[in-house]
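Flagellar FliJ protein, Blastopirellula marina. Tokens?
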Amino acid sequence: MANFRFRLATFLKLKIAARDQRQAELMEVLSIQEQLVREYEETAAQLEQTITEARQGCSIGRLNVDDLIVAQRELNHLRATLAHKKSLQKKLAPHIEQRRNALLEAEKEVRSLEKLRERQEKRFADEQERRDSLQMDEIGLIAFARRER
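Tokens:
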């Protein structure tokens, strides 16, 4: 009995490797995005803390101009950092979408090759079953013919 051999098995392996590569690329970009979101949230928390500390320093009654200037510089720096992080997130969004689309396309190619393999394997099994049935019929006819002699 012959075994089924998918002629495009090597091609399928290459497509699976390409799909895995696309998935790794997407995961890399998503981890960068997560890091940016974390950094943005940390910076926003620092900004809120700095604002709270500056307000508390002003509410005591005695204003120190140097402290206010330092606080204002810190606030400006934190706001600029937030704007930069938000800008990086916006620039990263198209890259994420591009990699998602590449992964979807690679997944579609792998699925179509796997379906082709399944269809060919079923066709092979059906043909093998048909041949086995014909062979059994032939054996039965030979046995019947021998008994009739």
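The mean pLDDT is 93.
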